[in-house]
Amino acid sequence: MKDIKVPEKAPKFIKDIINKFNQLPLILKILLVVIAGYIAFKLISLIFIISIMSLSLMGVTIAKYPLISIIVILALSESIYLIYNAYKKKVK
């Protein structure tokens, strides 16, 4: 496993963590990467489950209160559009 290179502008605590990680034996590095991957997978699956639950709640709300739901959906789409435009300006 190659050593991780630290950018010069990185904060000191990140440099310390990466330097300590680079000093670990290969077995511990692999074990830490596997554990981090497992935790990341669990977090992503939790976010996915929560998003499905919120979509189902939104479906129930749309059926019960259509006017309020349309306003909320328009506000969400407007905010997504504004975030997208800000991202495009930052990338350029």
Automatic annotation (TrEMBL):
Domain of life, source organism: Bacteria
Protein known as: Uncharacterized protein
Keywords: Membrane, Transmembrane, Transmembrane helix
Taxonomic lineage: Bacteria, Bacillati, Bacillota, Bacilli, Lactobacillales
Residue ranges of the TM segments: 30-53, 65-84
